[in-house]
Amino acid sequence: MMTTSAKLMTRSELTDEEIKMVESCWQMSEEGEDLADYTRSNLRSCWPTLLRLIGSRFPEVRWQIYDVLGEGGDEVVGW
Fold it and tell me: Which range marks the domain in which residue 13 is found?
């Protein structure tokens, strides 16, 4: 499920159902950092999905997304 979610992160447009699946994986991976590490390595291609996940109803998901974006530094400022 995590592998599928990571691959979905790079698609520019996800359905609401796909976003829910990705969001669930972010919830589960809070301790493992698998999705966060993948996203850090593929930040530009994951950008559209990250923007949607910022609005997650789950604080642990939002926290992880902000953490990933914060580590992007100047790379994310220009987008």
Answer: 2-70
Question: Could you tell me if residue 78 is inside a domain?
Answer: no
Query: How far apart (Å, rounded) are the C-alpha atoms in residues 6 and 9?
Result: 5
Provide the whole-model pTM.
0.80
The predicted-structure confidence for 3-42, as pLDDT tens digits, reads as follows 888 888 888 889 999 999 999 989 887 666 788 888 988 9
Q: What Cα–Cα distance (Å) separates residue 66 from each residue in 17, 48, 51, 56, 63?
A: 22, 14, 10, 11, 5
In a domain, 25, yes or no: yes
Total domains in the fold of the chain: 1
